[in-house]
Specification:
By secondary structure, this protein is mainly α. The chain contains 1 helix and 2 strands, in the order E-E-H. It is flat and about 140 Å long.
Length: 139
């Protein structure tokens, strides 16, 4: 008869009770729009219908400037267009004038500093050329 083998057994602690979390499914607002119906380019009125009378709208004639010397009539732009153009031009000229007077002294100072550096660089270059030519003559 065989003798049973007695193996040691490990005692493990009980597992922790971790509650399960349930997440709600995300939702989002999806925008929608009403489709716009565009009539085809070859759309015609059915033959059994009649057009409404008196619904034509006429564009008022734009004012014109008569130039008598050369007999030409020039159309005048609308006042809103003229006001916008004049305002834009005045603001552009004013801004340019103001910034030019502010930046002119700064520009002069920067030019002076740069000119000093360029003059110094040229002077050092002449010295190096002179020194190198003297050294080559001595050898």
């Amino acid at each position: 008869m065989s003798i049973p083998i007695n193996l040691p057994r490990a005692t493990l602690p009980k597992a922790l009770d971790i509650p399960q979390m349930y997440l709600k499914q995300p939702s989002a607002y999806v925008p929608s729009y009403k489709p716009m119906v565009i009539p085809p380019s070859d759309l015609e009125r059915p033959p059994e219908t009649k057009a409404e009378e008196g619904t034509t709208t006429e564009q008022p004639e734009s004012p014109k400037l008569q130039i008598p010397v050369i007999d030409i009539q020039m159309p005048l732009p609308e006042p809103a267009v003229v006001i916008t153009a004049v305002t834009t031009a005045v603001v552009a000229v004013g801004a340019t004038s103001v910034t030019q007077t502010l930046f002119e002294p700064i520009k002069k100072k920067v030019q002076k500093q740069l000119q000093k550096k360029v003059d110094k660089w040229k002077e050092n270059r002449k010295k190096r050329k002179k020194d190198s030519s003297e050294n080559s003559k001595k050898e």
